[in-house]
Amino acid sequence: AARACFIARVPGSDLHMTKDKEEKDRGQKKKRRRRDSSMSFSNFHLVQTIKNSPAVIRRKFSKDKTKSLSHGDPYFKVHYLGVEKIYSLQVEQTQEIVKSFLQSYQEKGCKDHALVVRPRYLEVKEIVTGRQLTKTYLHDIAYCTADSVHPNIFLYICKRKGQLQCRVFLCNKAEKAKAITGCLAKSFERAFTDWQE
After folding, report:
1. Position 64 pLDDT exceeds 60
2. Cβ distance 155 to 180 under 8 Å?
3. Which CATH code, of 3.40.50.620, 3.90.25.10, 3.40.1570.10, 2.30.29.30, is assigned to 72-196?
4. Is the model more confident about 61 or about 140?
5. Is the pLDDT of residue 107 over 70?
6. What are phi and psi of 115, to 5 degrees?
7. Which of 62, 89, 103, 185 pairs with 147 at a CA distance of 20 to 30 A?
8. Per-residue DSSP letters for 77-102?
9. Where are the domains of the chain?
């Protein structure tokens, strides 16, 4: 009888232990799910916070705004430093102009501008307001280049009312200044081809 009782108790004991283990496992799984859910929510919240941060919104707005100003034509985000009279096409004369504009920029700063390359002209617009600051027809441009001393500077020399002018732009990197020069060269080629036809 003792043996029978023992045999009867052992399966019950195993069953009781198995149930305890299952309940424990279920509890651990619930805790893991809650923790994972909490982490997922936390990660989601972090991503949303970053997306909605003022800096990201400003960057996205600025990019969309610049694109809307171009109407599909090539455009470049730059700082338009200004325009100065010049008396020849010698590039050496531009060095003092560039130096002066850069010094003024470091002291006062400058707004963001969009330099838009149209099929027949260049225009500079304020990104925030969309106001056009300058408009230069391609046939009035005598020379354009990325500055040799300051490679992140793009400039062009144009003729306006019988006077040569040098317009200077600050780019965030040298590659952009070169890209603007290349883009403008292609526009000259297309305009010349159209004129021949």
Report:
1. no
2. no
3. 2.30.29.30
4. 140
5. yes
6. -95, 110
7. 62
8. EEEEEEEEE-SSS-THHHHHHHHHHH
9. 1-52, 72-196
